[in-house]
Amino acid sequence: MGFRLRRKHMIDLLFPVALFFVFALSAVTLILLAAGIYRAATENSSLQYTSRTGLAYISEKIHQCDENGGIYLGTLDGCEALILEQQYGEDMYRTYIYAWEESLRELFIRDGVEAEAENGRTILEVRDFTVEQLTDRVFRFTCTDREERTSTAVIGMRSGH
Asked: Where does the chain have alpha helices with state H?
């Protein structure tokens, strides 16, 4: 029985090396594409954060204070404001939600106490915030963030006036 000696060819070395480089290049390309998609998704999410978060906050406040006649439009220091009235014990309190100096603000104060717009707590920085009462129980809120992206929400109250 004769043993045949196998001759080594250059292709025996080049094929596995080429296959490895093709695999490595594919893996790097896939990682770069995934990173680009992730970056775009997170940027879009953060860009929508401001205006949508402000509207979600207002929606939640309305649902918390939804009592007969406790939600209406008014003004605070010349600023258009959503006013939420709540009774705590013997005293009546008001929460003003309004835009002042490019920020959405909230001021919680006892009824009868003089209020100034500058004293409100900043919720979010916004370019513009408007409130429109569509019916006696439905409001439309529009919030524009600093990058000029606008979000709108129509919120209805469950209780009647």
From this structure: 10-64
CA distance 108 to 150: 26
Q: Return the pLDDT at 106.
A: 94
Residue 24: what pLDDT?
95
Tell me: pLDDT of 108 over 80.
Answer: yes
Q: With contact defined as beta carbons under 8 Å apart, do 77 and 117 qualify?
A: yes
Paired tokens of 106: 């909230």
For residues 66 and 64, give the distance between their C-alpha atoms in angstroms, rounded to a whole number: 6
Q: Contact, 151 vs 51, CB < 8 A?
A: yes
State which amino acid sits at residue 13. Answer: L
Whole-model pTM: value is 0.69
CB 79 within 8 A of CB 100: yes
Query: Distance (Å, rounded) from C-alpha 71 to C-alpha 135?
Result: 12
Query: 């007969």: which residue's tokens?
Result: 68
> Phi, psi (5° rounding) for residue 56?
-65, -40
pLDDT at 48: 65
How far apart CA 123 and CA 49 sit, in angstroms, is: 13
